[in-house]
From TrEMBL:
It is an enzyme of class 3 (hydrolase). Its EC number is 3.6.3.-. Transmembrane segments: none annotated. Signal peptide: none annotated. SMART domains: AAA. Pfam families: ABC_tran. This is Lipopolysaccharide export system ATP-binding protein LptB. Keywords: ATP-binding, Hydrolase, Nucleotide-binding, Transport. InterPro entries: AAA+_ATPase, ABC_AA/LPS_Transport, ABC_transporter-like_ATP-bd, P-loop_NTPase. GO terms for molecular function: ATP binding; ATP hydrolysis activity. It comes from the Bacteria. The lineage of its organism: Bacteria, Pseudomonadati, Pseudomonadota, Alphaproteobacteria, Rhodobacterales.
Length: 249
């Protein structure tokens, strides 16, 4: 069991309310989509859920088989430690670490003391190296032993960093924007396999609707900061409100 639930969650910037959600729950299904127009508040919601952005009001709870925990008092690295992380829509940094080191780092448990625990031999190092190689070799990086070269490669490293960390619930913010089609499919197939094996649950934000319809078991529609509709892909696809507010039909 895995449920991430937000209740009466709001976020305002300078009096402007960008998120206002009575109730939403993620994690009930394997692969869920979160869609909505530009500026709907999707990235803000993901930031709120992972405690990277402080809410104006509202509560966020994570329930697993071992119990329910309020995320409100936690910081994002503590949220990560209990198994909830996100990929980033826009990538910054990564320039100082090689692709392999970024992935090695992701396999060490996030620590409040930050960089101190990097490369600490908390796991069997053969296991780490084997996993890192699996992910690096699955994709055509320009320089496998070096740094990510392009924006697309950095984005891919960010995604792989999250997959290799094996969270319980992974939020992906436009994972495939800026990636070539064949890489997008490879990433999504990898995600689907992990979800099918029961290793993790995933919520994906995407403007690529065919991809959402193809991969997601359940879809949430966000517009102007609120969840307006939720359902299986077919229901969402044929919903009038979604069509009017998003697809301009
Ligand atoms: N740090 C901030 N300060 C002020 N306004 C912000 C900030 N972050 C986001 N916003 C505003 O909040 C609204 C929601 O932004 P958000 O990035 O969450 O939308 P989104 O649904 O992810 O859009 P997109 O599909 O374009 O990525 C927008 O109007 C945006 O301008
Ligand atoms: Mg966004």
């Amino acid at each position: 069991m895995m449920q991430l639930e937000a209740t009466n969650l709001t976020k305002s910037y300078h009096e402007h309310e960008v998120v206002n959600i009575e109730k939403v729950a993620f994690g009930a299904m394997g692969l869920e989509g979160l869609i909505g127009p530009n500026g709907a508040g999707k990235s803000t919601l993901m930031g709120l859920l992972t405690r990277r952005i402080a809410p104006t009001s509202g509560s966020i709870k994570l329930s697993t088989d071992t119990g329910t925990k309020s995320l409100n008092p936690l910081r994002s690295h503590e949220v990560a430690r209990i198994g909830l992380i996100k990929t980033n829509q826009r990538i910054q940094g990564f320039d100082s670490l090689t692709i392999r080191d970024s992935l090695r780092l992701a396999m060490t448990p996030p620590d409040a003391e930050g960089l101190k625990s990097i490369f600490a031999k908390t796991r069997d190092s053969d296991e780490v190296e084997e996993k890192v190689s699996y992910y690096v070799e699955a994709f055509p990086f320009t320089d496998r032993e070096g740094h990510a070269r392009s924006g697309g490669e950095k984005k891919l490293v960010d995604i792989l960093r999250c997959l290799i960390a094996e969270p319980k619930l992974l939020l992906m913010d436009e994972p495939t924007a800026g990636l070539p089609d064949d890489i997008t499919r490879k990433v999504m197939n990898m995600v689907r396999e992990k979800v099918a094996s029961g290793a993790m649950r995933v919520v994906v934000v995407e403007h690529d609707l065919p991809l959402i319809w193809e991969y997601c078991d359940y879809v949430h529609f966000l517009s102007e900061g609120s969840i307006l509709f939720e359902g299986e892909p077919d229901e969402v696809k044929s919903n009038r409100v979604v069509a009017e507010k998003y697809m301009g039909v």
